Amino acid sequence: MPIPFILGGIAIGTGLLGIGKGIKAGIDMKDAKDTNERANTIVDDAKDELEERRKASGKSLEALGSKKLYILDKSMNRFVSAFEQLKNVELTESVGLDELAKFRIDKQSLTELKEMGGYAASILGGTAAGALGGALTAFGAYGAAMTFATASTGTAIATLSGAAATNATLAFFGGGSLAAGGLGMAGGAAVLGGLVAGPALAVMGFVIGAKASAQVDEAYSNLARARKIREELETAGVACNAIRRRAYLFYRLFVRLDSLFLPLIVGMEKAIVAHGTDFRSFTDDEKHTVAAAVSIAGAIKAVLDTPLLTEDGKLTDESAFVAQDVGSKVGTKNVSTDKDSSVTLYVKADSAPKLWVWQPNGEKCSEKMGFSWDNRPSMQRNSEKKGWFSFTIPEGCYTRGKPFSFIINNTSQVDTDMTSSFYYDGNRWWRI
After folding, report:
1. CB 363 within 8 A of CB 374
2. What is d(CA 421, CA 97) in angstroms, rounded to the nearest whole number?
3. Which helix (H) or strand (E) holds 243?
4. What are the pLDDT digits (tens) for 338-386?
5. Any bridge partners for residue 138, and if so which?
6. How far apart, in whole angstroms, are the C-alpha atoms of residue 342 and residue 397?
7. Is the pLDDT of residue 207 over 50?
8. What is the SS3 assignment for 331?
9. Residues 6+ apart with CB under 8 A from 10
């Protein structure tokens, strides 16, 4: 009778179907697992990339803030001290200064610069370098006038630190690792120019666990979600890069302005020693020096007052305009700013060393810059090279083509054959 055979055939077919479904389920599970792992890798890689860009942008803002404070504390305070001594000052249009004439300062601007210099001195004089942290980021990101608007001399550091802790954008740049879920601010999600909104940051911790659904549809949904997250984080990374470039543009502009400013201040001080404080007794060259110093001071103030970022982290149009406007004017043939106008010494050290530098031909570089042995300047941390510090000697404070000698802290004298910018690692030196 054929019935048992037929039933047996059905049973075999059913068994084979079951095996087939089991095989497909196994394939689906592997596909789902592999897809989830791809999604997880996409998010992790995107997070790591943004983390690097975030750190670089934060360092650039911190370096800019440090440079602003340094110029205010050193060069600007020294200029204000000399200029306030002068009497009967009448500045007329001077040859070679037409491009910078619009930056000249009035009495109100001079008062503001004096106040800013006081804030800078109180911060640098009363705060350990390591404690500045987010305060430097805040000062780098925003204009000096806006930053210090509500601060008194005693609360300047608190004002800056408070801004760094509560402002979403600054917290983003100064906060903890994204991988650890840190954004360095109390409550809420950071916003970077509207590009990284709360939801995107919320999924930065997106990791598909081992118990994630094995269903293929859900796995591919996770993959699509991961790609969307990557797009948003890549957009934020582009914004970080743009901020970093603008910050370093301002940093280089300050270096250039200060290299012009310091020799002019030295010239003012020498004129006061030679002729007293009556501007009318100065020679034409000395009057030209004062006029140039006033113009450079005005240009520095214009850059100091210009914020790089808006409150929500967008680059300001004003910063692009000012950088172009001031940069083009101090780069003209009337005010030399060629690449050889200053010399920078880079030293490798664990902490900021004090430097004393001169040239064996008799040029007293540190003294020309207004320093004494007891008041030797600390070198500035290089934000791009970990463990390195820099010190720039502006044109007018050294003799071109002559080698440099220096003493770091209280160590032995080092004599080099370097006549331009160079590195020193404690054992040897080499040209840049």
Report:
1. no
2. 29
3. helix 216-275
4. 344 678 899 999 888 999 999 998 888 888 776 778 878 888 877 667 7
5. none
6. 9
7. no
8. coil
9. none
